Amino acid sequence: MTLATPDASIDGMSPDCDLLVRNGIVVPMERDRHWLTGDVVVRDGRIAEILPSGADKITARRVLDASGAVVLPGFIQSHVHVVQSLLRHQADGLELLDWLERRTLPYEAALDGDGVATAAELGIAELLTGGTTTVLDFGTTHDHGRVFESAEKMGIRMTSGRTHMDMGSSTAAALIEDADASLADAEGIGGRWHGQAGGRLRYAVAPRFALSCTRGLLEGCARLAREHGWLLHSHASENTDEVAAVRAATGMSNIEYLDAVGLTGPDVVLAHGVHLDSAEIQLLVDTRTRICHCPGANLKLGSGIADIPGLRSRGVPVGLGADGPPCNNRLSAFYEMSLAATLHSLRSGPTALGAWDAMALATRDGARVLHLADVIGTLTPGKAADITVVSLDGWSMIPGDDPVARVVHGGSAADVRHVLVDGRPVVVDGRLTTVDPNALRTRIDECWRATRRRMEHR
Ligand SMILES: [Zn+2]
Predict the structure, then answer these.
(1) How far is the centre of ligand 1, averaged over its atoms, from the C-alpha of 295 (Å)?
(2) 64, 81, 294, 315: least surrounded by Cβ within 10 Å?
(3) pLDDT score for 3
(4) Which pTM was predicted?
């Protein structure tokens, strides 16, 4: 079935628009429980208008068929680690601190530049084919320019930064750096990449977490980000052992400590926020700090259930993310939305966070978390044409009326038909258009073998 068809130059006339996403159930996500059947018109990489069925037919250079499918804003994941993708399925059955010390840090230390690039491409391939068009991404300590090169080539919208760590155990020795040198490296990478690809790529300063950085480094990260107007991105309060270790080291709760070093504020995105006391929640509210909910990773590592309905009701901006491939083990917005829309029933009842709330976390709320609400997050004329088309053909999607309930509770990455970023079709009929998938699979296999050999010989 070929769904991408030229429709241009009828009678030699120039077409009315660049691209038409035709005849889908369009869910703009500007408000809940609103959808219409029609066409999304794309011009110059932006959404020009949404035409309901029966409107005058217009011509397009290219048409993507969305019949029998839902047309949504491209999904936004506010916390992922594409660089960890080669460790997928190799770090199971561990709690957070063991997971980090025994598997993840040795893996990151063993990656070479080609490993960084290939891991990033694996992660981005999975994200794009799963309908995720935007991520806030967390790097390792070296070769981070290779992640941006991969993102530029493959067409995803990415805010990303190399991580920082200047203390830790012997297993992390190869990743521990001089604080000033690591900040200088971040400044160089951010200066090179922030704003590139028409603004699709942005830099975020990313200290790993309170336990891997000296106070001076955390303060330096905050200073660097604010000098340049870059976001800050870190982890906080994922696990009870981590929270206890921060208190033992600093005499403060985790969020109190981050606040003391400058790592709270509207420009700060903290992944997890599972174990927070009432004073910490008040600090998040007062400082307008953002939280990224990572239910799949929190379940797999046995970390706990974040009180997301409670944080949202207090006005804390919350996004959704898969975290890293070794702690999930997938980078699927569908899986995270399904978990978000079911997990909170255990603690807060079945109406606490429904399908439309989960879809909001992965679209308009995620855009707010990343300070991109003027650009993406809803299908609104004038915004970037970041669009995900999800087929409703699957058995788990029928029958039903509410298209968002069907996608959140019945959909999967395999149901994604087309994906656009800035109006560019990066996935058509479920296939990546920006890299050769078979060549990428070969490189993934070679790079994982080489990385594993280096891990074994350390
Ligand atoms: Zn993470």
Answers:
(1) 12
(2) 315
(3) 42
(4) 0.96
